[in-house]
Amino acid sequence: MLQALDDAAVGQWCRAAVTALSGARGRLDDLNVFPVPDGDTGTNLLLTAQAAVAELDAADGESAWTALTRGAVLGARGNSGTILAQLLRGLSDQLAGREPADGPDLAAALQKAADTAYSAVADPEEGTLLTVARAGAEAAVTAVADGRTALADVVTAAADGARTALEATPGQLDALRTAGVVDAGGAGFCVVLDALVATVTGVEPARPPLVPRRTRPADPAAVPHQPPPGPGSEVQYLLADADEASVAVLHGRLAALGDSLVVVGVDTPAGRQWNVHVHTNDVGGAIEAGIEAGRPHAIAVTPLAPVRPAAPVPGLRAVVAVVPGEGLAQLFSGEGVRVVPCGPGGVDEDEILAELLASGAGDVVVLPNDPALTPVAARAADRAREAGRDVAVVPTRSPVQGLAAIAVADPARRFGDDVIAMAEAAAATRWAEVTVAEQEALTMAGPCRPGDALGSAEGDVVVVGQGLAAVACELLDRLLSAGGEMATLVVGPDPALGDTVCAHLAGAHPTVEVVRYDAGAVIPLQVGVE
């Protein structure tokens, strides 16, 4: 029975952890469903622990804590491996170069390690390795506070507390609850703590086997309510020749490029280095950010296993709309529509497809709200049909046509009938808009210069003038001269323009029903006439 952890005991623990992780690797890989179900958590933890032991074996005359931490950080693999390396670094910061650690020393170090691990992760999730590590540390601290200060009592309390927290992880993450498994990274850390108990006490704790709580479907497509496909690649590299300020900037840039971001630093004979890990779609951007911060090396890019969508829910119906601008997005969302934001650069079919699949609906209507986006929406719909969705694209050419389609949607109707009704409502809505000319051009209504107000109907400029209000009123007069019972106005950033147009309609077209939305859209005024 060890009374304190000296360098020899630390080495014995690390080797025991490697042996235990090697035996548990297959089961840990099988548990892996979060953050992506790529089945490598056990492998990554084992590789990280092996790198720590290799560095420890090569060390000469330095603290075992220092050597194993350097090896773990420089050799960390994957999300869980990098977090494990950070936990070891937190222990090393408290215990390296000091007297052998007794129970209270180790409890305090475990608490500090858990705290620093949380700070190393850009967006920490509960129900993961972080949660399990913190629970183990808190149990160790509680044991000391209760008077159980012997090293054996402290490590046993830590391992038991971590295991209790592990069993609770399915209640903290939807992906775990749905798959019926505990968190793979947390389970791996429990294996590491149990190896510590065996090292200190000579007795390996008796634990139930690491198996799913219920049979997990072999095909991820059979697991309901999974998130839509996420970032496509795991990017990991070591970073040298960078200072703390540059790393802080790098951290911010990578957080904007992806998720599962962990950055862990360690001192080496050649200077401080960082292990950088992120899941992202922008591999080049992640590496370029490292180049700007310092000198990235040992770069590894691994495609992530795709998360296949859940099977659609029969009878569930959804509407997905491509919408430009935050104001219009809020307007459509308020009508119960799933929104795909569209910026100046447009939108690609992957974004539309992700929203289609994320809806979980078996029947989906897509409103592109722009003639240029109808083919894009159609391609996304084709791919969604391959995944078992019944998708119909209503070719709305403007957000006001999309609003008209939503207004008549009725989930109580048969899906095909509802699609026809929405398409008819959109087609019966003449659409127009008032904008400001950005350059000199020759239009159907004559020449225009930058700053001129332009009134267009169905995509063609029909009015050119000096003031937005005057052009808007003339545009409406032209539209209503062909008849119309209702005018829908989507007012942009200037509410006064909406006031003027509404007053004009009340005076010049008193029988026309007016529906006004103050959406704060970029376009000064959008109009629909039914």
TrEMBL record:
SUPFAM superfamilies cross-referenced by the UniProt entry: DhaL-like
SMART domains recorded for this chain? Dak1_2 (SM01121), Dak2 (SM01120)
One of the record's GO molecular function terms: glycerone kinase activity
Show the segment(s) annotated as Disordered. Answer: 208-233
> Which GO terms are recorded in the biological process aspect for this UniProt protein?
glycerol metabolic process
Q: Where do the DhaL domain residues begin and end?
A: 8-198
Query: Which PANTHER family does this entry report, sorted A to Z?
Result: DEGV DOMAIN-CONTAINING PROTEIN DR_1986-RELATED, PHOSPHATASE PROTEIN
The entry's protein name is DhaL domain-containing protein
Protein's organism: Geodermatophilus aquaeductus
